[in-house]
Specification:
Blueprint (H helix, E strand, L loop, with lengths): L14 E6 L8 E6 L2 E7 L1 E5 L9 E6 L2 H4 L5 E5 L5 H4 L2 H8 L3 E3 L1 H13 L8 E3 L5 E4 L2 E7 L8 E7 L2 E5 L18 H5 L7 E5 L16 H10 L4 E4 L5 H14 L2 E5 L1 H12 L23 E5 L9 H6 L13 E4 L8 H13 L3 E4 L15 H11 L3 E5 L3 H13 L4 E2 L7 E3 L5 E3 L7 E3 L3
Parallel strand pairs: 3-6, 6-7, 7-8, 12-13, 13-19, 14-16, 14-17, 15-16, 17-18, 19-20
Antiparallel strand pairs: 1-2, 1-21, 2-3, 4-5, 5-23, 9-10, 10-11, 11-12, 21-22
InterPro entries: Metallo-B-lactamas, RibonucZ/Hydroxyglut_hydro, RMMBL, RNase_J_2, RNase_J_b_CASP
Protein name: Metallo-beta-lactamase family protein, RNA-specific
Pfam families: Lactamase_B, RMMBL, RNase_J_b_CASP
């Protein structure tokens, strides 16, 4: 019988224990257990969220409660960060003091993380071990390989975690994109080769598993965005996810082609682009201007990219909508383009933002109403998920990164792709992947904590 005090994997055990990101989108914190040790994969946050389903108070930044693994941090051999999205690394600066173990990741993500650590007084204090793409290294009893794939920012990686008790393929966030704008096109070969490795379990992104077909390529958005910017008469403001470097590069190219100067409004955008510049991801011929220079430019020469496409209260788009941004005010006839979707749960905040913009009599374009594509998801739709299952051929499918409907859609895809076992659970469940395969529900009490900005 498992109890919290005795919960320790033997050399014959291979366990998966999600504390965040399973049964929800965002706030990923995953643990793998083997031979008395634990490996953490990702440590992220979510924004403007409550600490429980019944609570009405929203907190600006929230993470999974790390108490379980913090209480046994001496057995935590490392934290692996798969990519530089806030829902995968945003909690590291606030929580690392509770873990005090090495962090493993690739160069772009390491640079972005260092900047975040410096903001909380941890510059140079966290051991960050930079790993090459396709590297394979031992972290305690876990042998970890970084396999590159495509997502919506530089250097996204999946992981192959090999142990004496079995092997796991952890996808993290991904899609199949043959025109990703940033980085190399998706290469199926490494994943097809996994079929010969007896992958015990595939832990798979479920975000769009309930959407048929395939996701759009990032490279398909240029024409739609170009036509909107080129036709606009006043200022153009584009709201998009601040971490999407590919989208930002596309917009910078469009600004160059349409005779506009591009500026960034929002700290997360500026941090991400400065990271891209420092790691030579950002093309040197694409120039940006300081937001403080906007007031001196004709409206027809301005292209702004702003944070806050989800209606977050203190972000740049909200401040523009409420005449409280220091750098710029929107006027009648300006254009605001939402190069994004509404994340479930943000419908009311986005509706309030759009209503505030409408009162300013600006032209508003949302992705679902645009004549041509102006947004592409960074996650795979059903046909892509099925293809990856067929390539990898795992014994067990473990859907993660999704709400209940997404997890069950993923499991159904796995079953149709002839994956023998599908395990659908939630945060706090213990997935036993060796011996008698099963889920032990709510072995660990999963919760949330609010983090200070």
């Amino acid at each position: 019988m498992f109890t919290i005090s005795t919960l320790s994997p033997s050399e014959h055990d291979l366990w998966f224990l999600p504390l965040g990101g399973t049964g929800e989108i965002g706030m990923n914190l995953n643990l793998y257990g083997h031979a008395g040790k634990w490996l953490m994969v990702d440590c992220g946050v979510t924004f403007n969220a409550s600490l429980s389903p019944d609570a009405t108070t929203l907190h600006e930044v929230v993470s999974a409660d790390p108490s379980f693994i913090a209480d046994r941090h001496e057995d935590l051999v490392g934290i692996v960060i798969t990519h530089a999205h806030e829902d995968h690394l945003g909690a590291v600066p606030q929580l690392w003091r509770r873990f005090r173990c090495p962090v493993y990741t690739t160069a772009f993500t390491a640079e972005f993380l260092r900047r975040k650590l410096a903001q909380v007084g941890l510059a140079g204090k966290v051991p960050i071990i930079e790993v090459e793409s396709r590297a394979r290294i031992d972290i305690g009893p876990f042998n970890v390989e970084w396999l590159p794939l495509t997502h919506s920012l530089p250097e996204p990686h999946s992981l192959v975690i090999r142990t004496a008790a079995g092997n796991v393929f952890h996808t993290a966030d991904w899609k199949i994109d043959y025109q990703p704008v940033v980085g190399e096109p998706f290469d199926p070969l490494p994943f097809q080769e996994l079929a010969h490795e007896n992958i015990t379990a595939m832990v798979c992104d479920s975000t769009n598993a309930n959407r048929p077909g395939r996701s759009l390529s990032e490279g398909e958005l240029y024409d739609g965005l170009y036509e909107l910017v080129e036709a606009a008469e006043g200022r153009v403001v584009v709201g998009c996810f601040g971490s999407n470097i590919a989208r930002l590069i596309t917009l910078a190219k469009i600004a160059q082609q349409t005779g506009r100067y591009m500026a960034l409004l929002g700290r997360s955008l500026q941090n991400m682009v400065s990271t891209a510049q420092a790691t030579d991801v950002w093309p040197k011929d694409l120039r940006l201007i300081e937001a403080s220079h906007l007031a001196y430019l004709p409206k027809s020469e301005v292209l702004l990219v702003a944070t806050g496409s989800q209606g977050e209260p203190r972000t740049a788009l909200n401040r523009l909508a409420n005449n409280s941004h220091y750098a710029c005010e929107l006027d009648v006839g300006d254009t605001v383009i939402f190069s994004s979707i509404v994340i479930p749960g943000n419908e009311h905040s986005v509706a309030r933002l759009i209503a505030a913009l409408e009162r300013k009599q600006v032209h508003i374009v949302v992705a679902k109403a645009a004549a041509k594509p102006i947004h592409a998801s960074g996650h795979p739709c059903a046909d892509e998920v099925a293809e990856l299952y067929r390539w990898v051929q795992p014994t067990i499918a473990i859907p993660v990164h999704g709400e209940t409907e997404h997890l069950h859609a993923n499991a159904a895809i796995a079953k149709a792709a002839f994956v023998p076992i599908q395990l659908v659970g939630t945060n706090g469940d213990l997935y036993i992947l060796s011996g008698r395969v099963r889920i032990r529900p709510q072995v660990v009490k999963a919760g949330r904590i609010a983090l200070k900005q």
